[in-house]
Amino acid sequence: MSVLPQSVEKVINEFSKLPGVGPKTAARMAYHYIRSPNHDAKKLSEALSHMDENVVFCKKCFNISEEEICDICSSPLRKKSKLCVVEEPLDVIAFENSAVYDGLYFVLGGVISPAEGISAEDLRFKDLKKRVNEILGEIEKERLEIIVATNPSLEGEASASYISDMFKKEVKEGTIEITRLAMGLPTGADLEYADRLTLKRALEGRKSI
Ligand SMILES: [Zn+2]
Description:
Layout: H1 6-15, H2 23-35, H3 40-54, E1 56-57, E2 64-65, H4 71-74, E3 79-86, H5 89-98, E4 103-107, H6 125-139, E5 144-148, H7 154-166, H8 168-173, E6 176-180, H9 196-204, E7 207-208
Parallel strand pairs: 3-4, 3-5, 5-6
Antiparallel strand pairs: 1-2, 6-7
The protein binds zinc ion.
């Protein structure tokens, strides 16, 4: 028989599924909500259900959004001739918070990682191709710059090479230029945690690949 009431155990079990949270932290989090006098548990559960019901992936860039097309993709102020390819929605937030980028994004949904069994088919490369063709149609004679902003890890580099192979023909024809963020970012760093200045330098120093 467990010492914990089943309802508490259930919550601990759910918290343990969170990234970076072990059973001990999960238990501490559960106790926090038990002790909380402000109906915080109710507020948390309502916020989570609201998010679950309302958040979707933008149909163009696959960033998280409450609309079919996100605010960035639908903004007339964003430059369509720049497409920044990132791993996760959190990377978009890092760029947006740093306010150093005025183009569009595309969220791959991860990186190629044979060690974790993630191949190109598991990521949104086909959608990327589709989106790039769509943009090329919209910008007509302007050249599209694809800025590959995957993390500076082995997997991030492999994904960058994959993208550059995907658009070899277009690069040759001069309709697309592919650039990679400058390595002001230390190898193995996570874009999501980069500060504004580091991101700005990485973006300004980007080079063709
Ligand atoms: Zn979007």
